[in-house]
């Protein structure tokens, strides 16, 4: 139940992003382009659940500015070629998320310094 709620919040956040992008089409706003593009931003997270067969991670992530998404717990699918070896529940990591048509994808991860 809790997870479903968070996924709905994610969808709402992304809907808001699209709407705002349109408003910014004709705006000057050079400051907005200074932030990392989607897929390039490293986001702090804690591993809550690992599904090695489905290659899915449940992460409690911090704010994802490139997606205008607040911190929450949600599922990411590891991108092809991303190794989940050595990763354990409770680990604190940084990861690069991106949204694709099939869902939210983790492009890379590393341990928090
Ligand atoms: Cu989220």
From TrEMBL:
InterPro entries: CusF_Ec (IPR021647), CusF_sf (IPR042230). It comes from the Bacteria. Gene3D superfamilies: Copper binding periplasmic protein CusF. Coiled coil: none annotated. Residues 1-21 form the signal peptide. Keywords: Signal. It holds the Pfam family CusF_Ec. The keyword GTP-binding does not apply. This is Copper-binding protein. It comes from Roseateles rivi. The lineage of its organism: Bacteria, Pseudomonadati, Pseudomonadota, Betaproteobacteria, Burkholderiales.
